């Protein structure tokens, strides 16, 4: 949070999920100089529906959300974690293609060795010419 604060020129509105560590981190970094809200989503089975065998291993459904003002004057309309959730999903999907590449965990040395092996070899150099 200290790093985030140092990168900001103006007061901002911040929304986090319900992870308790954010409360202290935001307070220590920003003090009262932020409009901060917490969005806590509730998950479960949709009301009035029984759990069907088809849904047994499906992720839970978001059944509601609670917006709580923590500091300053956050605009309730803009209390959202959707942007970061989308960014995280994009990152997970981009990294997904790297799973299953190998049965063993590669070290940085292993990665560098593979990169060096695949790098083009330098060709022969022409004769050296002295400058005038």
Range of strand content = 15-25%
Helix and strand run: HEHEEHH
Note the total helix count: 4
Rounded to the nearest angstrom, the radius of gyration is 25 Å
- Mean pLDDT, to the nearest integer, reads 87
Q: What fraction, in percent, of the residue positions are helical?
A: 25-40%
Major sheet, described briefly? 3 strands, mixed
What's the N-to-C terminus distance?
58 Å
Count of domain modules? 1
Write a structural description.
- By secondary structure, the chain is of the alpha+beta class.
- The chain has one domain (2-94).
- Helices cover 32% and strands 19% of the residues.
- It is built from 4 helices and 3 strands.
- A 3-stranded mixed β-sheet has the order 1-2-3, with helices on one face.
- The model has no long low-confidence stretch (mean pLDDT 87).
């Amino acid at each position: 949070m200290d790093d985030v604060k140092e990168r900001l020129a103006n007061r901002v509105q911040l929304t986090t999920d319900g992870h308790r560590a954010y409360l202290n981190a935001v307070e220590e970094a920003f003090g009262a100089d932020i409009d901060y809200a917490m969005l806590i989503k509730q998950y479960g089975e949709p009301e009035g529906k029984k759990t069907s065998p088809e849904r047994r291993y499906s992720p839970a459904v978001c059944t509601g959300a609670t917006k709580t003002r923590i500091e300053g004057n956050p605009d309730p309309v803009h209390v959202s974690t959707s942007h970061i959730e989308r960014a995280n999903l994009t990152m997970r999907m981009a990294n997904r293609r790297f799973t299953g590449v190998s049965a063993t965990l590669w070290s940085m040395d292993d990665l560098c060795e593979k990169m060096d092996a695949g790098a083009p070899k330098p060709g022969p150099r022409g004769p050296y010419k002295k400058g005038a």
